[in-house]
Every structure is written in C-alpha cells, then in structure tokens.
Here is the input.
Amino acid sequence: MEKTNLLRKLRVKRNRARLGGGDRRIKDQHDKGKLTARERIKVLVDPESFEEFDTFVIHRCHDFGMDQKHIFGDGVVTGCATIDGRIVYLYAQDFTTNGGSLSKTHAEKICKIMDMAMKVGAPVIGLADSGGARVQEGIDALAGYGDIFLRNVMASGVIPQISAIMGPCAGGAVYSPAITDFIIMNRQTSYMFVTGPKVVKTVLNETVSTEELGGALAHSTKSGVAQFMTETEEETLLVIRKIFSFLPSNNMEDPPYSVPTDLIERRCEELNGIIPENPNMPYDILDIIHNIVDDGDFLEVARDYAQNIVVGFARMNGHPVGIVANQPKVIAGVLDINSSIKGARFVRFCDAFNIPLIFLEDVPGFLPGSNQEHNGIIRNGAKLLYAIAEATVPKITVILRKAYGGAYIVMNSRHLRADVVYAWPTAEIAVMGSKGAAEIIFKKDSLQQKDPEGFMTQKEEEYQDKFENPYRAAEKGYIEDVIEPANTRFRLIRALEMLSGKKDRNPPRKHGNIPL
Here is the structure.
C-alpha cells in the first residue's frame, strides 16, 4: 500500500510538472499560434526519444513574494533525445511559467545539458521563448546568463549549436543565440533586440514597432542575425532537423553520409549553355547549384541576406558539402561588406566541422564607393580572405565566368591553398575587364591615333584574347583543368573522392587575429 501511494504521488507531481504554468496559460500560448515547450520538443525529435532532466527543479528566490510561486521545471524543459537516431541535447523555454524568464536555477538546468553535450560530443539545440532575466532575482539571473554565454563560447567549433527563436528574446538573452552557429526565427511570433521599442522611444525619441525593430524579417534581411526565417513553428522545427542532417555530432567526426540516389556520372547538359554570350548579362547561380548537387537538394543559409553571395549545404555522392557561390543576378555578384561577412562565417563553420567546401566563382570584383570604404570593406573583405586561407578542409573552386582582381584571389584561388581549381571555357581570369584594362594601358597611345575609338576597341579585343579566358591561368598551373560545364558534377565528385584523406594544418598558435 505504501509503494502504491509513493507511485501515485510521483505521477501526480509529474503530471503537475508537465502542465507548466497551467491550463489557462497553455491556452493563451495556443491562442497566440504557439506550441508549448514540450509540444515543440515532440515535433522536433524522434518519437518517444526524449529523456527529460530536472523535471522537479524549482527556483530558490525568496524576494518579492517569489517564495509563494513555485512551479516545477522553473520555466525551461531540458533533456536528451535523438534526431534521425543521433543523440542531441536540448532545452525549450516554457513561456507559460513566469514568462519563460531566466532564473539562476533555470540557467543551471541549461548549463547542465550543455556540459553533458560537451562530454558526450553531441549538438545542443535551444528553443528560446523567454521574457528575459527574472527581475525578482537581480544579479543571480544575470550570473545565470553569464554562465550560459561562457559555455556557448567554449562549445563553439566543438559541437554544433542551433538556436530557434520561438517567441520573445530580448536584452542579454539575445547573446546566447548570437554565439551559436545558426538562428531560426518565425515570421509570426519571434523577435530579438537588445533594447525594446519603449527604450528606443525614451532614449532616441524614435518610434518603431516590435516587428520593425527586431522581427524575423528585419533580422533575416537587414541585420543578418538570423540565417533562416519560417512561417510556422512546425516549419521552424523541421528546418532544425534539416540542418542537423548535414552536420557531424562534433568536430572530431565526419559529416553524416547518406546512400546516394543520384548518379555520379550524371551529365548536366543545360549547363553547357547557361552562361549568356553577353558577359554583362545575369543568370541565376541556383540553377547551376541545383543541377550539380545530389537530387537538386540544396539548403540555402541566410537566403534573404546579402543575396549577392549564396551559401548553403548539399550532398555530392551522399557526402555533405558546403557551397559558396557568387550570385550574378544580384549586383552582378560583387563582393561587398555584408556578403564577405556572410561568406566568411559560413566557411569557418564548415571548416570547424569537417565539411568540404565548393566555390562557384563569377565575381567582377569588390563593390566600389565611399559607403563601402567608410564602413570597412577593406577590413570586412579581409574576413572572407582570412577564413578561406585558414580553412584546412578540402577546397575546390570552379571558375564559371568572371574572376577579376583581388576578388579572384579571395574566392578560394590556388594562392589561398585551394586544392583543386577548375574553370569553364567561359572563364575570364584577369586583373580587370578588358575595357578598363585597355583604358589604363593604352589611353595615352589612343590620343595619337586617327581613330582613337577603333584603336581602343582593337586593344580591348587584344586584352580579351590574352587574358579574358582560362588558358593563360592553365598554362601557369593556377588551375588544374578547363572542363566541360555538363561534366562539372562528375569532376567535383571525383575531386572530393581524391581529397577525402586530406590532412592539412595551420602553424601552432593560440589563435589567429581575424580582422574583426
């Protein structure tokens, strides 16, 4: 009889814990179009795989009447589960309990699963839905955030960290997601900002809505804080699963292999005619990417930000790869501040987690202008150069069309330790375009000609013949081969197979000094 009572007591307490803030607050959450913390976990992980930790934890605050408000779990659900059979650790903040606000014990629960993840070598997924630091706890809540931030930094580059913003994320709370590898935001319900609209109005007398200041659209298109924007919570959770499918569990493992359903030798005949005859005409780089990767499946990262560069994950013969490609249909694919930062961040992530890199190059140069110069195109452009030169994973480049000036060097040229560089017959590898080059070299000579215009046209053509083709670079060994576009997929897969055992390392050092 005694055992029966003990089991009944356990079940009652567990059921109470699973209710979080109670039926009314759960209903409020649903009325906002939001799932509860446990409902989110159920969608995210494999069925029946979630093992919850610290279910009965309560806060230790006695001030401002908090000693009368104890709810099991203290506003966050933590534990371990599997996704596609692979171990992950995760936490989901529970907005039904004290608005998901972070207390010291709330933070300790998160820190515990982060510590376990580091020991095991498994990713951490955080589902944020919180009103921020619990005001009643004062500095203890701030200390809790600091403890989490430290673990985010220590885990960076060791285990993948993914953050989904499922509701509010304000103040100091934003810095934990900011340190992680990927942030997903929901267009309908999530926002992030350091200071809210009321503070902005008080301090700057600027009127701005929550959505304009820190909504998903703002952070996906303007700030670049979020790498993915979704329409529903279910989509958010499925995107996490999709990202996870390309990533190893830690920096000591290889990315997960999937048995390919696409042919290695599949030719892409449409690529033979995809580059316009007019070198100034745009085309969509995504058409090339979808043609060459396995089954046309490409997960674009930061799709709505700095669209002149495209980055994302795909598979080649079943093996995950990271793709970095200039996008000619957006400001001609030039490199600017935002695209350089976007590319550098992605390259460094792939290098940290052993994901080979493929570069598809069609770049006329860096974006000119006082706005770019004054905002640091030199320093920020150097970030991309630094990240690519530093990377030791297999690195392959295909020069599709333009490869001009410093941008040619930066986009994984032979000079930055590219392992294999291919070029299409349409490649133009030169210091600059023929028109600009002819003006610099022959401008004075043209003034002495009877037909200056005809003379300059002739010199432009001469420059084109000498430099605006891939063969001068091939003669000097700067590229391995000029390949048929339709055969690009096959050649890339063969190169990746050849490089599968690559071992490269940087000089011993504490760390380099990337131009932040």
